[in-house]
Write a structure and sequence with these properties.
The protein has about 625 residues and is of the alpha+beta class. It has 13 helices and 37 strands.
């Protein structure tokens, strides 16, 4: 191993290729991906960050059913290198302007049959990625991927969910080498020897199955696994195998590499896309969608709270759980959407994959006729090829109808909002709906403090936060201030407020609630550690929203405010009421000098939230 490390160190700062090895280095020179050939002519790769081996030599390849195509006895036929240097704008996410800068490499391999297989490489300042590409004359069946991830670290803390097709589980902290014979979900977060942070995920999955990872035995090796074999067309490009890398957690939390690895937007005009704060009647009343007066009450609340959307689960008219077609003959739907519009509130609906797969045009067209501007699509719960292709069609067709889209009962985001900016959010998370499910485990404070470092890193997250009401079915342990802070801590194009109207209308934090937004121009990680606490600053226009949540014991924090313009700020700080932290909140005015640290005390399971407004306006 020492010889191997020495060899790589000698070539670490160059994009290069020999007859047996090609490499690409990030613009800042810190991250590198190397592809070489083993003795059998099988391609292998390695990943490096800050002079450290992150992924040891690991197998590359695809298992084709047609053995005319093989990932063995290959030779490097050609290597070309390039550069990506662009920026683009999206209506949702951690930022408004996405910077996409990477060095690239394209390796062409020739097999013993004269067929060519390509591997694309990218090296970013916050990670590396690769994918497979090849042209073929006939249709080909892929049985599985041969890709391995051989983690070099001998001691790694990890936060990885056991594989669940609906991604609604927890990310427990475990020693990576203690996990064995376990299917695991993306994203996988590891702290390698307490020196380098690594997140493993995938990007750009549209017309093929998504993968997950499996760890066998006690080896620190992961295998990529497909849920099924599938047929590919003449030009095949795999999803990107993605590694986010950095010495600091800020690199993980602030990364947009997943979006950068996706195709450019298919939409020339995005002026009609309007993210916003939404209200969610179902959480407080499973039959709320069956009664126009109840829905109007939620609209009135949204208008008073200065929010923008209502989720009207159209297909749940006369049904609390699964699709009913009663809405198609219900005569008050147009009256309701007109009422919402008169109050300045936009409406999005709800339906299931089993309906939309065969009646998508009917439902989308009917929505437009009724003045409904979006849809939540539910019960997909799969990573198979059919489900991924359905999602792609649903997003593409929704854009033609100028409909916003959310997915529920859902897989992990893989950056599709870049290609389809009309995608507002995805579930794929154990969120506040679990407070309503008696006998199941609801979100815990530790879970909330893990999500910003795991699930929410890779895309919008429909958690349905800020549930002040303590449900008898599954009481929460988070404080009132913790719940308020979730609206800033969790990123989602539709921030869907789940509680009942009175919980917000009579809230002592009503003033703060009326200022909530769901779009961000910039995100800055301030402090935190997975499962313990997280503090973030997010900019909307000239205003900075600063929030934190805690799951550990009482904690004193000291936050740098160097993201602010220099000066004095008068803020309203919303923090825990130590006398009644579950049901009340402390609000105090504070004068803050941006050159000084913001010092706060967080109680166990607590939180805080405030807004720094630009005083120069």
């Amino acid at each position: 191993m020492s010889v191997f490390i020495l060899l790589i160190t000698l070539i670490l700062f160059s994009n290069s290729c020999t007859s047996n090895e090609c490499s690409v280095v990030s613009p800042n020179g810190k991250n590198k991906i190397v592809v070489s050939m083993d003795e059998s002519g099988m391609p292998i790769y390695s990943v490096f960050s800050y002079d450290k081996v992150i992924v040891k030599p690991s197998k590359l390849g695809i298992d084709f059913e047609n053995k005319d195509y093989q990932f063995e006895k290959l030779r490097i036929a050609n290597f070309s290198k390039g550069k990506i240097d662009e920026s683009y704008e999206l209506p949702t996410g951690k930022t408004r302007i996405y910077e996409n800068r990477a060095n690239t490499g394209l390796i062409s391999f020739e097999d013993i049959n004269g067929k060519f297989i390509k591997i694309n490489l990218r090296a970013y300042d916050d990670g590396v990625a690769f994918n497979y590409e090849f042209e073929n004359e006939d249709k080909v069946v892929i049985n599985n991927e041969l890709t391995e991830i051989n983690i070099a670290s001998t001691s790694s803390d990890s936060w990885i969910m056991n594989y669940n097709p609906n991604y609604e589980s927890f990310y427990p902290k475990r020693q990576f080498d203690s996990i064995q014979n376990q299917a695991l979900s993306y994203p996988a977060l590891l702290h390698l020897d307490k020196k380098i942070w690594l997140m493993i995920t995938e990007a750009a999955v549209y017309d093929q199955p998504a993968t997950h990872i499996v760890k066998k035995g006690l080896e620190n090796k992961l295998n990529l696994v497909l849920p099924e074999k599938f047929e590919i067309q003449k030009h095949y490009i795999s999803p990107w195998r993605t590694f986010i890398l950095g010495k600091n957690l800020s690199t993980i939390v602030e990364s947009v590499i997943v979006e950068n690895l996706n195709p450019s937007s298919v939409l020339k005009d995005t002026s009609w896309i309007e993210p916003g704060i939404a209200v969610f009647p179902w959480w407080g009343n499973y039959l709320a969608n069956s009664h126009i007066d109840t829905l109007k009450m939620y609209v009135d609340m949204a208008a008073e709270m200065k929010w923008q959307w209502i989720e009207f689960d159209v297909s749940l008219v006369n049904s609390p759980w699964r699709t009913s077609k009663d809405w198609r003959t219900t005569d008050w739907l147009g009256e309701f959407t007109a009422y919402a519009k008169s109050k300045g509130i936009k409406v999005y609906g709800w339906d299931e994959i089993n309906v939309l797969d065969t009646e998508m045009d009917y439902v989308y067209g009917k929505y437009r006729d009724l003045g409904i501007d979006g849809i939540k699509i539910d019960y997909i719960d799969s990573d198979d090829a059919f489900s991924m292709r359905f999602r792609d069609r649903a997003m593409r067709e929704a854009a033609k109808y100028k409909l916003h889209v959310s997915f529920h009962g859902e897989t992990l985001p893989r950056g599709q909002r870049r290609k389809y900016p009309n995608v507002m959010t995805l579930e794929g998370v154990r969120g506040a709906e679990y407070y309503t499910f008696r006998g199941d485990i609801p979100p815990t404070p530790e879970h909330n403090c893990t999500l910003p470092f795991t699930r929410n890193v890779v895309g919008s997250m429909d958690y349905t936060p800020v549930t002040f009401t303590i449900r008898d079915e599954n009481p929460r342990k988070t404080t009132y201030a913790h719940e308020l802070a979730l609206a800033v801590i969790f990123e989602s194009g539709w921030t869907v407020m789940a509680d009942r109207p009175q919980a917000y209308l009579t809230s002592p934090a009503k003033t703060m609630l009326q200022q909530l937004v769901s779009t961000w121009d910039e995100t800055v990680f301030l402090d935190g550690y997975p499962g313990e606490f997280i503090c973030l600053a997010r900019r909307h226009g000239n205003d900075w929203y600063v929030a934190g949540i805690n799951a550990a014991g009482d904690k004193e924090i000291s936050l740098s405010l160097d993201f602010l313009k220099k000066g004095n700020y008068k803020i309203e700080m919303y923090s825990d009421d130590s006398n009644d932290p579950l049901s009340s909140i402390k609000i105090e005015e504070m004068n803050i000098d941006s050159s000084k640290k913001l010092k706060l005390k967080l109680i166990e399971n607590g939180g805080f939230c405030t807004i720094f407004k630009d005083s120069s306006r």
